[in-house]
Amino acid sequence: VVIEAREFVSAARKRGIEWYTGVPCSFLTPFINHVIAEPDLRYLSSANEGDALATAAGMAIGGRGAAVMMQNSGLGNAVSPLTSLAHVFRIPLLLICTHRGAPDLHDEPQHELMGAITESLFDLMQVPWEPFPREASHVEAALDRARKHFASQSRPYGLLMSKGAIAGDESAGAQSGRPVSRDSVEQVRRSEVGAAASRSEVLRRILAATPTDGTVVIATTGYTGRELYEIADRANHLYMVGSMGCASSLGLGIALARPDLSIVVIDGDGAALMRMGNLATIGAYAGGNFVHLLLDNESHESTGAQATVSASVDFAMIAVACGYAPVLAGRDLDLIDELFAAPSSDRPRLLHLKIRTGTPTRLPRPAIGPEAVVRRLMHHIGSHFHA
Ligand SMILES: Cc1ncc(C[n+]2csc(CCOP(=O)(O)OP(=O)(O)O)c2C)c(N)n1
Questions:
Q1: Could you give the 3-state DSSP secondary structure of residue 354?
Q2: How many angstroms separate the CA atoms of 245 and 182, rounded?
Q3: Atom of ligand 1 nearest to the CA of 80
Q4: pTM of model > 0.70
Q5: How far apart, in Å, do the first and last CA atoms of the chain sit?
Q6: At what angle do helices 315-322 and 277-285 cross, to 10 degrees?
Q7: Residue 327 DSSP label
Q8: In angstroms, what is the span from residue 282 Cα to ligand 1's centroid?
Q9: Ligand 1 binding pocket mutation candidate from 221, 246, 365 (most atoms within 8 A of CB)
Q10: For 335-368, how does the pLDDT look when each residue is reduced to its tens digit (9 = 90+)?
Q11: Per-residue pLDDT for 49 more than 60?
């Protein structure tokens, strides 16, 4: 017996799961295409399974029940956000992962090893899972077991989908994201004035521009979050502790779930390079409430200031080409105020700010744990997990 996509999707919708994100797998085709075609559901095409997971986490923080879809070959891409974001921050998410290379399946060579270890990998990551239901009458019970886990552990739950487990409309999905025409590509506004400021000075400026009410400030992994915490610890802050590079994909999810709030992501050059696909996804999907500040000290300062390759990368031009507007670049601290003061539009905005290295000695780590930070944020913005 094979179940129809709509049978699963409508049972999930009854339980508050209406938003989906991920990267496709041919086993998932009828399912994803059904979600894309349903006007009341939302499918966000992510560049990477890990970022899909982080974006779904942001959706959940913003009060939207979210599911992540992936091929098991993409489970590797999601290990860091699964272990160091969803696990530590305790975010309930439904994972629908296909099982290419399952031991009883004659599949392609590249799926053989991952197929053999997929179940153990879920177990090792302490993500409880069960086979994706094969009969319509089993769907409700499976989703209720997921919900029970969400209620008791507030962590992800996996459904492992075998080949042919789902049927439905095979037609190709509609275009997703925002079409970018050459005409709509704007220019970077560059400022040549000013000397590169320290991260502290920059963070103080950002703090002054982000009122506790109405904004959410997400600080990237490493010194940035720790330094922000040291300068001011406010209820609208979220300090990434792991999942390097996912501050922006997480922020995208919150921004889509909460268009009434301004979501401010403070990124690093190392983090942005690690998951550069996020610039494309954000450019395609984010609205005018997404504010991206990329603090570029041309190094992985948090791990000993090893140079990154950012000196040869023009992030501002990349952002423009991905659909951000306005995009500002330079060293001048006033660019921060200019970024926030720009007229509101339907596009995400970005500032590529060159800063100098240098961090206060004896920088404390947040005394408040990640789980408490996220609960405090959700309480502050009046959100609760919906799935
Ligand atoms: C996946 C992953 N790889 C490596 C690390 C170790 N790490 C923590 S912070 C950091 C550097 C981040 O560089 P950047 O984003 O440029 O910020 P900066 O440290 O310069 O403030 C690294 C490599 C990590 N936390 N996660």
A1: strand
A2: 28
A3: 1
A4: yes
A5: 27
A6: 40
A7: E
A8: 21
A9: 221
A10: 999 999 999 999 999 999 999 999 888 898 889 9
A11: yes
